[in-house]
Amino acid sequence: QVLAAIDRLLAEAGSDKSHILQAIVWLADMADFDAMNAVWDGWVDRQNTPVRACGQSLLADPGYRVEIIVTAALA
Question: What is the pTM for the complete model shown?
Answer without folding.
Answer: 0.91
